[in-house]
Amino acid sequence: MRFLKVRNMDINGFLFVFMLSTIMLNLVISLYGVFARPSLIKKIIALTILSDSGNVLAIAVGFRDWPSGWSPSTPPVLNVTSPKASDVVSFARVAVDPLPQALVLTAVVIGLAVMLFLVFLTLQIYRLYGTTDVRKVAKLKG
Amino acid sequence: MRLGRYLQAFSLVALAVLLAVALTYKGLGDLPNPAVRDLALWYLYTTLNPEVPNMTVMSPEAVTAIVWDYRGLDTLFETMVFFLAIVGALAIMRGITLNEGGEGLHIERYGLSLITKTATKLLVPLIIGVSASIALHGHLTPGGGFQGGSAAAVAPLLVLVIFSTYYVVFKLRLSELSMISLRTLGLMGIYMTSFATLILGLVIGVNAYIFQNMPKANAFIGLPPALGGSLISGTLFFFNLFEFFAVAAGFTLVFILLSIPEVKAREVLKGEEHGH
């Protein structure tokens, strides 16, 4: 139980662990939706939840604990346009990790593109065969 | 069948526990950590730092700096994936268009009430203004071309729902073809911007790279970080601008395709079946 001991179960630590477990729960429920629900629409909805949970997890990994009790960690955006050396140093001391955010931005766009394509595919399947149930679609001949 | 259900449930729960244990004990260390990784520190130190002239991106927004400079090629191919997905959607919906047949229609009879129409007329310029601000300040504040473009696409979506598809296609002339053209222009802009420094280098006769933004140690040219006293961060401003057009037009195209009346789509599909 190293994890719990390090955090000493203060309220913020508890909330963070709670959030992570909620994300895990979300991941699992959405995987169930993708695997087990027969409707293509429900599969697509579950896939959206899956990718969004993954994105939230990535953002949470990039989060930085407050440097001290009263000064919060900040977004990775400098608020001066011609900084002195001291500005950059103090910025790097409190800003959160920008890399997961950039990766999530990419993942959101690609997820959206895939989602669009799937929606159009499902729409045409429904128009042609009158169903979105994969069990029925799989049995169709021709 | 019942056993299969139990097996499914068990394997999913096992996966969740495994993920949680792996992330907690091996993958990530203590969360949230008061320190960031060394790589993150590198990005934070160099994103806007005139004291390291060959390393900096000259953008105060570290996320945009990563997206369009440090990992710029990544984003270029991401734009390509988005482009290909829309090409795929167009291919699936081939033949289903609204390009003709708008002559005899009384367009003003379609849509919701006068109140919603007037409110939409007031809202649309505001939406466009806010989204342009998100896109054009992408190198200074959170946001960027993609976010701005997605926000801008809300305006045609509102008009589609409140005024009808016919209004958008026949009155506003936002047809599929014009949206594809606008989208292609945006993509061409992104393409040209990624070559801008290279072409500049060829003209002057010095080393330069594809996708280069600021001067580097062995390729000491780049686009100007500021224009007329305001920071544009070299290529970042142009990438955001063109991405804004490409994304807004792409989404509008998809919304128009999705709002074509079902009767019309079924007509085309039926004709296709008879043709075979």
Automatic annotation (TrEMBL), chain B:
UniProt subcellular location: Cell membrane
Query: What keywords does the record list, in alphabetical order?
Result: Cell membrane, Membrane, Transmembrane, Transmembrane helix
Q: Which residues are listed as membrane-spanning?
A: 80-98, 119-140, 146-169, 190-211, 231-260
Which residue intervals define the domain Na+/H+ antiporter MnhB subunit-related protein in the entry? 115-252
GO cellular component, alphabetical, reads: plasma membrane
Major location (coarse) = membrane
Topology relative to the membrane, per the entry?
Answer: Multi-pass membrane protein
Q: What is this protein called?
A: Na+/H+ antiporter MnhB subunit-related protein domain-containing protein
Q: Which organism is it from?
A: Zestosphaera tikiterensis
